[in-house]
Amino acid sequence: MALYSKKIIEHFKNPRNVGKIKNPSGIGEAGNIQCGDLMKLYIKIGKNKKGEDIIEDIKFETYGCIIAIANASLLTTIVKGKSLNYALKLKKEDLIKKLGKPLPPFKIHCSVLALDALKEAIYDYYKKSKIKIPDELEKEHKRIVKIKKEISKRYKTLQKKNKIS
Amino acid sequence: MKKIYLDYSATTPVDPRVLKAMIPYFSQKFGNTMSLHSFGQEAKDALEKSRKIIADFIKAKQNEIIFTSSATESNNLALKGIAFANKDRGNHIIISSIEHPCIIESARWLENQGFEITRLKVDKYGLINLNDLKKAIRKDTILVSIMHANNEIGTIEPIKEIGEIIKAVSRKLKAKIYFHTDAAQTFGKIPIDVNKMNVDLLTASSHKMYGPKGAAILYIREGVKIEPILHGGGHEFGLRSSTINIPSIVGFAEAVKICKKEMKEEARREIKLRDKLIKGVLKEIPGSYLNGHPKKRLPNNANFWFEKVEGESIVMELDLLGISASTGSACSSDKLEPSHVLLAIGLKPWQAHGSLRLSIGRWTKEKDIDYVLKVLPKVINKLRKISAIK
Description:
The structure holds two protein chains of two kinds. Helix content of chain A is 50%, strand content 18%. Chain A is of the alpha+beta class. The longest helix of chain A has 27 residues, at 135-161. The radius of gyration of chain A is 16 Å and the shape is globular. In chain A, 41% of the residues are buried. Chain B has two domains: 4-11 and 262-385, Aspartate Aminotransferase, domain 1; 16-258, Aspartate Aminotransferase, domain 2. In chain B, 41% of the residues lie in helices and 14% in strands. Chain B has helices spanning 16-22, 24-27, 38-57, 71-85, 101-112, 130-136, 159-173, 246-284, 311-320, 340-344, 349-352, 366-385; strands at 4-5, 65-68, 92-96, 116-120, 141-145, 178-182, 201-205, 216-220, 288-290, 301-306, 323-324, 326-327, 355-359. The A-B interface holds A 1, 9, 12-13, 15, 18-19, 29, 33-40, 60-66, 68-69, 105-106, 109, 155, 158-159, 162-165 and B 97, 117-121, 132, 308-310, 312-313, 316, 319-320, 329, 331-338, 340, 343-344, 348-350, 352-353, 385-389.
């Protein structure tokens, strides 16, 4: 299919790391079901030889489109076994590039979901473990929460718009 | 891999018999209908013959058929043409909330030009309420436009009854209120009689019924006051200037000829396949629901929503299995908003996003339906396994 790259189709067909983790170190959620996109990400934190926090295991669940699924699958393969610092430095542009083909503009939103959910999962882990949350992550957390609220608001206007005038 | 096309409501392949009829009109009989020489007259002949075939098909007079390039153009002409020709009488227009975007957007544009639009709501099946309609009509109403059948959910509106109401209110108010119906989805599938249906204007399109793209009609009852939106050489009784697209129009007329002969039998066949599909899906897939009316629906339309899964992913999985379907919801817009039709029938956005439209047609076989019924439950199951909604 011309709209999507082979890589996207491949991850969509066989998504990696699907499901839940029992007793996860952190859970992150992004998107809003009212708008038709929901991403849930679970992480299990371990230590590497240097004593840094690493993502020992990662799993996702999503109600979403092709890009949301493929992108989440790709992201989990990239960050599994890597340090949290590495994961937090990932940019959406890196992921989009790895998917192999420029995305249609209206699909960018779907490609950010997984990364946002990962940030939220790490935020959740830091908070639970009483680790100081880096300023940058705090900012991101606020942004993600704000988006969720905006989607909720948009959904309400949408409902109103479709009523009789 | 064998491909199964189940998106006939989006567009249809050109019937080989239609293509055969069209071919001479590209390089041999290529004339301009406005030319006086023999090439021109040959083209003009073909145009008028085509017009007659299509007029007869819907019990209209020949001079009541205007050829356009698309149903979108016909609908634009109907709304804007009536609005501007009758604005001295009133500025109120009524449409339904589930019209095709070309009606919705034309109405919105007219609203910005100072016209007043009422959008009638629909019930959970997509049917408008006749009492709502009665209440909505006013002395300054100039046009009511209600689609014959909905392109997404397939629900057929009671056009005859709507027409009767408009006629009666027109008489009472001593005002001429025109009635337009967009029949793009019904033309060639179920019988259309402009007199029995009490319509003043009707839109139909060639590419939805095995004709080529680029040809459509607007039926305009004799005496209706309407302004053109394309000005120029005065083609089509001065209502639609543009060099006539003869090959497509000849193809359109040939497609109509075929439908005239085969429509009744074909509708019977398609209804059987449609009902097998609907019954099978609802039975085999838990958490699946039919969108639209169970009985008052297009012979070829099935539209479902599935709990916990997203429509685009379903379409993609099906495409990988050789089945061409369509999301019930237009998620491809940059706004990512679910379909206005599915919201209007009361679906929540997350339900609308889980919708799938399967539309069958002339070359759909029973074994194609069997294949869908075999693979669709697996697809839904797979997507539910990775779903974030439990």
